[in-house]
Design goal:
about 750 residues; alpha+beta; 11 strands; disordered C terminus
């Protein structure tokens, strides 16, 4: 692999104009295609095979043409203190607003609160429901403006009016703030690391190119594939993080090779052949882990995983081709200032001090070598302590209640909960299949009475029958909110107790609705956590076994990955679920962790952890295989890689932290969780636990059974074969021989 990438790097450097033109052409093509695309949608989560989904499917089958595909908007009217919405002038204001709401061309109907009994018992609150002929992603801004106009009319009469519902969500996606924060911090870190504006700017530029191609591609495919706005934001987040880091590794190795006296084209080839090999491996691990999310069985999760994997793949290709091409336009611009000055004086063979003198990374490694046990124990104990809250992890799908109180959706949610009870925002939908019953209506009535008498149910709506009269749907309102653990227990109780009533009535029923669907998805995802963690951890062992040809190193890497993920999830529970320091991160309402968070974090952090493992430990293995002792190899690895790995980690933390300010719950949690995971993995696991373990193992760290060594294919990440490949080439370049140890 290193030989192929070496030739790719030299070729991109030599034909830099064509490489840039090709990428600009690709960017223009996807941009033009995305301009005419419908854009992302926000479809509901679904999971084939669970009870909630089966009930939805039954409703579509038995109620043809009446499935709840259309968008809805809910306008909530709250009377001033001491008054009721039913009083003369306020009632008239509500009526005028309802009539105004029915004028939109996409509106299918508006439910007048006084006719649909949508008025609270104390008369303080009422709501009107607007149904549309189209899905939420197709509701126009003009129709949303009509809702806002009607709300403003009612406000003028003294009412407090808030709006919510799927029709009022115009879609999400990046608003630019997170990206600006991430790029600004990345620029500072890169400038401090390289001491050159060109070296700092090149990774930023190539990352932006990769992200632009990826995001336009996602927009182009959003309509046909049903990709959500969260997919767009996730692509932006990962694209920036890995795009900057991958380019950083290649540029850093290029500078190192130039410092050793290599000519520009040769240095570009060696950089892509060595650091590029690690980039390919690291990117491959992320792609595999994200693509593997398909096994969970949630279509939305699968789409997000595949789209994110595509973003990472683009970042890898950009790092391998665009980076060496841009280096070719100004080969000396990315070099350190003292090297550029030396070359200006005519010293073309100026060499950077890469060896004997210890830097901060080497001094830290020597400290760990002297005190491996305390460092190891302290690191492991700290991560385990942070992971303890993970034991109380609650999964769910927060809705409007998790939004900021500055949003009208959150205020509408709170108003309805106050006026009609906390369970009003998440009613359970009961679908009764009475085909086997002698008297379907009597059977439905018996089931309705049984569920209505269950502790925790405050009201049951009248049942609505299909045209054949053999299937009915009614709603049961819990006394607790949709994300309350008591609501989850209530759903389990209703399902557990249905056997008796089904035997009595010869009818069957299933519990669904958004609340039940979220509960089912959370249960399914939670049951998949351990198997997915085992698969990802096992994959880490296999891949690192191929790279390092060592048994202890992959096992240590996989265990470190597990520690960092569990610690990050524990901190996530502390902040977002238990509320500790929640205000610092803009979390106004605690609740369950998004169901998709643990799976997403495992997949993404797996790949990012392998980044640091490969770039750090591969330099140790390189030194060890060239005769250094096990301890000295650890020091050499830190001398060459610690600064770059630290910079890469700080950049990722900055990029991910910027997304904590996003409104979407998934993206906010994911930004926080990934920032925490990178912090723990890079600075605790890779910088402390890894050298401590290697120091304790000594030569045994690189042990590989002879039979396994014969079976395993050789993956040349360090570029050991580059010297042979170059000497065998038909037209050797007059830059001098390529060193075998790179």
């Amino acid at each position: 692999m290193a030989t192929f990438l070496y030739r790719l790097g030299r070729g991109a450097f030599r034909r830099r104009g064509w490489v840039v033109l090709v990428w600009l052409g690709v960017l223009a093509a996807v941009a033009v295609g995305a301009a005419g695309a419908p854009g992302p949608s926000d479809e509901e989560f679904s999971m084939p095979g669970i009870e909630s989904q089966k009930a939805f499917d039954l409703m579509e089958e038995r109620f043809p043409g009446e499935a709840a595909d259309g968008a809805t908007a809910r306008v909530v009217f709250v009377a001033p203190d001491g008054r009721k919405v039913t009083s003369g002038d306020l009632r008239k204001a509500v009526g005028d607003a309802v009539r105004s709401l029915s004028g939109g061309p996409q509106v299918a109907g508006v439910a007048d609160p006084f006719e649909s009994k949508a008025v609270s018992k104390d008369g303080s609150t009422a709501y009107a429901t607007v149904t549309y002929k189209v899905e939420s992603s197709e509701v126009t801004d003009a129709d949303r403006a009509e809702v806002d106009k009607a709300a403003n009319q009612a406000r003028a009469a003294g009412l407090t009016v808030e709006t919510g519902g799927s029709a009022m969500d115009s879609g999400g996606g990046p608003d630019g703030t997170a990206e600006i924060v991430g790029l600004s911090v990345a620029a500072i870190v890169l400038l401090f690391t390289f001491g050159s504006f060109a070296a700092a700017g090149l990774p930023l530029l190539t990352a932006i190119v990769g992200v632009a191609v990826s995001l336009f591609g996602i927009l182009l495919l959003a309509g046909p594939l049903g990709l959500s706005s969260d997919t767009l934001t996730l692509g932006m987040m990962l694209g920036l993080a890995v795009g900057i880091d991958y380019a950083l590794f290649v540029v850093s190795r290029y500078r190192e090779e130039r410092g050793r006296g290599r000519a520009p084209q040769e240095a570009a080839g060696v950089a892509v052949g060595t650091a590029g090999s690690a980039v390919v491996f690291a990117g491959l691990t992320v792609v595999i882990a994200l693509s593997g999310l398909a096994v969970v069985g949630i279509p939305t999760l699968t789409k997000m995983g595949l789209a994110a994997a595509g973003t990472v793949a683009v970042a890898v290709l950009v790092a391998l081709t665009v980076v060496p091409a841009l280096l070719g336009f100004r080969p000396d611009a990315v070099l350190a200032r003292k090297v550029r000055k030396a070359r200006t004086r005519g010293d073309d063979r100026a060499v950077l001090p890469s060896g004997g003198r210890d830097n901060l990374g080497a001094r830290w490694a020597r400290f760990v070598l002297r005190h491996p046990v305390p460092v190891l124990v302290l690191g492991v104990v700290a991560l385990v302590a942070l992971a303890v809250p993970m034991a109380s992890l609650q999964l769910g799908m927060p809705g409007d209640e998790a939004k900021s109180t500055a949003t009208t959706e959150r205020r509408a949610y709170d108003a309805l909960a106050e006026g009609f009870g906390p369970g009003f925002n998440g009613p359970l939908t009961i679908v009764v299949d009475a085909r086997g019953a002698a008297d379907p209506r009597a059977a439905v009535r018996a089931i309705s009475d049984r569920i209505g008498g269950t502790d925790g149910i405050v009201s049951v709506s009248p049942a609505g029958f299909n045209q054949a009269g053999d299937t009915a749907v009614f709603r049961a309102t819990p006394s607790t909110s949709p994300t309350d653990e008591k609501t989850k227990a209530l759903v389990e109780t209703i399902r557990r107790n249905r056997t008796a009533v089904e035997k009595q009535t010869s009818a069957t029923f299933e519990v669904t609705g958004t609340t039940a669907l979220n509960i089912d998805i959370a249960a399914k995802v939670q049951s998949a956590l351990a198997p997915y963690l085992a698969v990802v951890g096992g994959l880490a062992v296999v891949l690192l076994l191929l790279v390092f040809r060592s048994v202890p190193v992959p096992v240590k890497a996989a265990l470190g990955f597990v520690l960092s993920v569990l610690a990050a999830l524990g901190v996530l529970v502390l902040v977002f679920q238990q509320g500790h320091a929640a205000g610092l991160f803009g979390v106004e309402q605690t609740g369950p962790i998004m169901s998709l968070m643990p799976i997403f974090m495992m997949g993404i952090v797996f790949g990012l952890a392998m980044d640091y493992e490969v770039f750090l430990v591969s330099r140790m293995r390189e030194a060890y295989t060239h005769g250094e002792s096990a301890g000295q190899a650890v020091v050499s690895g830190f001398r060459h890689s610690a600064r770059v790995v630290t910079a890469a980690a700080l950049i990722m933390i900055a990029v991910f932290s910027g997304f904590i300010g996003e409104q979407g719950s998934l993206i906010k949690m994911l930004g926080f969780g990934l920032a925490a995971a990178v912090l723990f993995d890079a600075f605790v696991v890779r910088m402390a636990i890894v050298p401590a373990v290697l120091a304790l193992l000594g030569d045994r760290a690189w042990w590989l059974p002879a039979w396994l060594g014969r079976v395993l294919p050789r993956v040349d990440v360090e570029g050991e074969k580059l010297g042979h490949a170059r000497s065998a080439g038909p037209n050797p370049h007059p830059d001098g021989p390529v060193e075998a140890h790179v």
